[in-house]
Amino acid sequence: MKKQDVVEAILKGRPSSPGEAGRGTAPANIALGKYWGKRNEELNLPVTSSLSISLGELGADTEIVPAETDSFYLNGDPVPADDPFARRAAAFLDLFRPDPSTGFRFSTVSRIPVAAGLASSASGFASTVLALNDLFGWGLEPRACSILARLGSGSASRSVYHGFAQWHAGGAEDGMDSFAEPLNRDWPDFRIGILELSDKPKPIGSRPAMQRTVETAELYAAWPAQANADLETLRAAIETRDFPRLGETAEGNAMAMHATMIATRPAILYWQPESVAAMQEVWAAREDGLPLYFTMDAGPNLKLLFLQPDRSAVRDIFPEIKIINPFDQS
Ligand code: PMV
Asked: Is the pLDDT of residue 115 over 60?
């Protein structure tokens, strides 16, 4: 089964002529219960379900306009066709061209500060799918948009929504049951602090890193059960607004994911000395009674989790953090 087959199945009977322009907006997200490992590389089908929180106003706006030939813009600036951003966008747009000669003027404005070192692919692909839905007038439900965004990158399936979202692993070969859904639970005091520690290039991208982990880490066999148990705990903690339970589980889940990477051969370690120092500062603050937790993805930076009343205490320890209120999209 190829990506194109999934696209055709979803778009069957929908309009195939584009309108004048399409626009889409989507937030970035960070996983509290991680996605790590695919059961199908082509369709980005995951081994386990995952659960995320969106980053509110931090995300991407994409505009797509039919044109004679392709052109690409990032934050208003033209991007050459051989740039990785343009190549990834063109390959994704290929799935949706009414005929191979249809070109697009593709323009994305990313509200994620580049310096924050956050993956922008999730909001990028999700906003692209929403822009295509608008351009062609497909009238797709969020669930179908989530499936299409997943074909771009797995975590993009969760960026179709604001707030907490769960991406169901599903079991079908064609992935039609592997989509994200919103949890429809808010938590007005919930805060995320982005702690940028290093702008060194990553040693390896998440796609090959996941693949190598699944293929070579004996420890990976322990991951699915841990991930599933953590997901249930996270859901219960969100339901009851039990912040320490949520924080402990998210932090432990991130550490377990990184443990599988460290057990990969050769090892994958995204941490820098500054990452470890920051972890220890978080633990020391917790010893002193501050309910502060962290999560980490495929990079050296920490994302801190805390509640609004502790905002200034957290800022005293980490003055440089960017604080996000995921439930304020104004
Ligand atoms: O969606 P991808 O291929 O960029 O992979 C994301 C992997 C993690 O960020 C480490 C975990 C996650 O669930 O977002």
From this structure: no
